[in-house]
Design brief:
Length: about 170
């Protein structure tokens, strides 16, 4: 591997991201719906809290939601990206759209800045007006994200050009 490109990434656990997105979504609901939704988030938190105490066999047999097994989270948590990138001596390019509602500038992009502040070869770039897919943000809200993702678009040309230039410079 010659380097690492982080596209709208996070150093948080998937559990943290999911719970934060659910909390953000609840804020967009009417007050009457918030209490019901909050109970669902608390149930999900309870399930996430139990993962670390599960054996591998238990995790492989426990469905958390939909068709997602606890094992997916248990295994992923054994390889924290934060540890990996902080030890890496390879060049790193971290990119994110500033209208991304899946990951945040504060909790994700800036956290990478902190984690990698002493890295010898890291580049960070925020793209104005782009969403998580590096396409033009149309709605820019979590509640409308699936409608936005279904609008036919292409990845912003500047993102592709910057990635190509970065790769060719290494």
């Amino acid at each position: 591997m010659a380097g690492l490109i982080i596209l709208a990434g996070t150093s948080r656990t998937l559990e943290e991201v999911i719970l934060n997105k659910n909390e953000d979504s609840i804020k967009q609901l009417e007050a009457s719906q918030q209490e019901i939704a909050l109970k669902h988030v608390q149930e999900l938190q309870y399930k996430f809290d139990g993962i670390s105490g599960m054996t591998v066999d238990m995790a492989q047999q426990t469905i958390l939601f939909g068709s997602v097994y606890a094992w997916y989270f248990k295994e992923m948590n054994q390889h924290p990206i934060k540890d990996y990138v902080s030890r890496s001596k390879k060049p790193i390019f971290a990119l994110q759209g500033d209208k991304d509602v899946q990951v945040s500038i504060e909790k994700d992009f800036n956290r990478y800045r902190e984690i990698l502040k002493d890295h010898p070869d890291v580049t960070f770039k925020l793209y104005p007006g782009l969403n998580h897919m590096f396409m033009k943000a149309v709605f820019g809200t979590l509640k409308d994200i699936w409608d936005e993702y279904n609008i036919p678009q292409s990845v912003d040309r500047n993102v592709l050009d910057d990635i190509a230039k970065w790769i060719l410079s290494k």
